[in-house]
Amino acid sequence: MMTVTYLRDVAQQVGYKTDALTVAEIGWNGESFVDLSGKRIHSIYKLYPWEWLLDEPFGQHLIETYSSMQWIEPIWKMVASNKGILAILWELYPNHPLLLEAHIDKPGSMVDYVQKPLYSREGANITLVGTSGPKLKTPGNYGAGGYVYQACAQIPQFDGQHPIIGSWYVIDQGACGMGVRESDTPITNNLSRFVPHLF
């Protein structure tokens, strides 16, 4: 809610008229998505995952109206947020130096690997497996859609912390932001510390 409120405030500061709706308040009038007053929605920003949105009662209308309504973020983000893409990339480019070995539904011959749900967020339902069995497992409500198994990359530790770099890349614009997330464990989660470094 805080992220959406912040972005709404930024949009209003540059002159955009905005309104706030919960997903349950998004309406369908038989032709288009509408707000609580019945006014057509032309553009909408959401943090709600696409795979959840497609399961909503109005989900069947998302594709048929996609060309006439601007969704921020776009539906193609479902491809990037599905961890199955890791296994597909490995299959297309095996042993590429910028990829880690990855497979769907089984670890193959890997003995040190990470089991990740195809769809999950903030480090939920992650299992780190090593030669002596499971080493670390996080709770959560994901995994019903299956798992991807990816080779484990050791994150360097600094004073007992596990920092990772998060970068934002805009197509046709290049790199536009970077942040550092730091965790007490090798699995980054929603309680990991975050510091925006450069925008």
**Structural class based on helices, strands and sheet pairing:** alpha+beta
What does the average pLDDT come to?
A: 90
* Total beta strand runs: 12
Widest β-sheet, arrangement of strands = 5-9-6-7-8
Distance between the termini: 22 Å
What does this structure look like?
This protein has 199 residues and is an alpha+beta fold. It has three domains: 2-77, no CATH class; 82-151, no CATH class; 162-198, no CATH class. The chain is built from five helices and twelve strands. It has helices spanning 2-13, 50-53, 61-64, 77-81, 84-92; strands at 27-28, 33-34, 43-45, 70-72, 102-104, 113-117, 127-130, 133-137, 147-151, 162-170, 174-183, 193-198. A five-stranded antiparallel sheet has the order 5-9-6-7-8. A three-stranded antiparallel sheet has the order 10-11-12, with no helix packed on it. The longest helix is centred in the N-terminal third of the chain and has 12 residues, at 2-13. It is globular. The two termini are 22 Å apart. The mean pLDDT is 90.
